[in-house]
Amino acid sequence: MADCIFCSIVDGDIPNHTVYEDDDVLAFLDVNPLARGHTLVIPKEHHERVNDLPADLAADVFATVHDLTDDVEAAVDAEATTIAVNNGPAAGQEVPHVHAHIVPRSEADGGKP
Ligand code: 5GP
Ligand code: ZN
C-alpha cells in the first residue's frame, strides 16, 4: 500500500534488519527499540488492524511470534518478553499496518510495561 512505512519495508524500499521472513510474514528489529532486541512481526500483506486480518494470516503472525520468542530472549539474554499489539490509533498504534511487538524484558527493568 502506498505511503505505508511497513509496506515499504516489505517491498525493500526502506532498509531493515530482518530477523525472520517467509512468504506471508516478516520480522525485523524496531528502529527505536524499547529494549535491545525489540522485534516487530508483521503480515506482508497490508491490513491496518488485527480485526482486519484473515484468520489464517492472524494465525501465521502469532505462530511467528511463538516461534521467535525463545530466540529473541536468548539473543539478548532476557528473562521474559512483553508481547503486545497496539490495535488502532486510540490504543497507541502509530503505524497503520498490523504489527506485534516482542520486547525483551528482565527483572531489573521493573516488570510492567
Ligand atoms: P506502534 O506504536 O504503531 O505500535 O509501533 C510502531 C513501531 O514501529 C514503533 O516501535 C517504531 O519505533 C517502529 N517503527 C516506525 N517506523 C519504523 C521503521 O521505518 N523501521 C523500523 N524498523 N521500525 C519502525
Ligand atoms: Zn502496509
TrEMBL record:
GO molecular function per UniProt: catalytic activity
All copies of domain HIT, residue ranges: 5-112
Span of the entire protein shown here: 1 to 113 of 139
Coiled coil, from the record: none
Record: active site: H99
Name listed for the protein in its UniProt record: Histidine triad (HIT) family protein
Motif annotated as Histidine triad motif, chain positions: 97-101
GO biological process, one term: nucleotide metabolic process
